[in-house]
Automatic annotation (TrEMBL):
Residues 82-145 form the Transcription factor CBF/NF-Y/archaeal histone domain. The keyword Transferase does not apply. It is found in: Nucleus. It comes from the Eukaryota. GO terms for molecular function: chromatin DNA binding; protein heterodimerization activity. The lineage of its organism: Eukaryota, Discoba, Heterolobosea, Tetramitia, Eutetramitia. This is Predicted protein. GO terms for biological process: DNA damage response; heterochromatin formation; leading strand elongation. It comes from Naegleria gruberi (Amoeba). Residues 1-80, 164-190 are annotated as: Disordered. InterPro entries: CBFA_NFYB_domain (IPR003958), DNA_Pol-Epsilon_Subunit (IPR051377), Histone-fold (IPR009072).
């Protein structure tokens, strides 16, 4: 995906409105470098880097709020972390057993999975909006895969979706049969 070099990449969510930058609150008792301090490099360079970090954080926050239906106005940021053990299980199926992963690598895989899911969801939301619906469907996700040029995963997704639907149907039938009782035992003769 191409983006202009002068703009930071914010996960590809180009359709979200820009958010105002958040001010980083200092922790009581801990002080950072004073204004104008050159500790760690030029203050202008540090300020630019910090602004980009805060801007990326603000974009993530706005996405989190918009994806989850809005915030409560100050309750804090939403967290979209996947269970690390599940992400690692998927990774371990692909990489050789002798490859060791550092904690930073595990975290990077987890964050990349979250970004991918959010990007796919945003693209699927565009599909639903195009069809004048507010609810995402499986077809929206499948269309989003095509739009993102990830159509090679579509067959596996359809197969997994069908397995899920069959298991849900079996659970429903099992629950319904428990409520009715065993067949033929509904009427007892005296």
């Amino acid at each position: 995906m191409d983006h202009p070099p002068h703009q930071p990449f914010h996960g590809g969510f180009h359709h979200l409105p820009p958010q105002p930058q958040q001010q980083q609150q200092s922790t009581p008792g801990k002080r950072g470098p004073k204004k104008g301090s050159t500790r760690g490099g030029s203050s202008a360079g540090n300020r630019t880097s910090h602004q980009q970090t805060v801007s990326a954080s603000a974009s993530s926050s706005s996405l989190a709020n918009s994806t989850s239906g809005g915030g409560d106005g100050g309750e804090g940021e939403y967290s979209f972390d996947l269970p690390r053990s599940n992400v690692l299980r998927v990774i371990r199926r692909i990489i050789p057993d002798e490859v060791q992963l550092s904690n930073d690598t595990k975290l990077a895989f987890s964050k990349a999975a979250v970004v991918f899911i959010m990007y796919l969801t945003a693209t699927a939301q565009e599909q639903a909006t195009k069809h004048k619906r507010s609810t995402l469907t499986a077809d929206d996700v499948l269309e989003a895969l095509d739009e993102l040029e990830l159509g090679e995963y579509k067959d596996e997704m359809v197969r997994t979706l069908n397995q899920y639907r069959q298991s849900q149907k079996a659970k429903k039938e099992k629950t319904t049969s428990k409520k009715r009782g065993p067949k033929g035992d509904d009427v007892e003769e005296m």
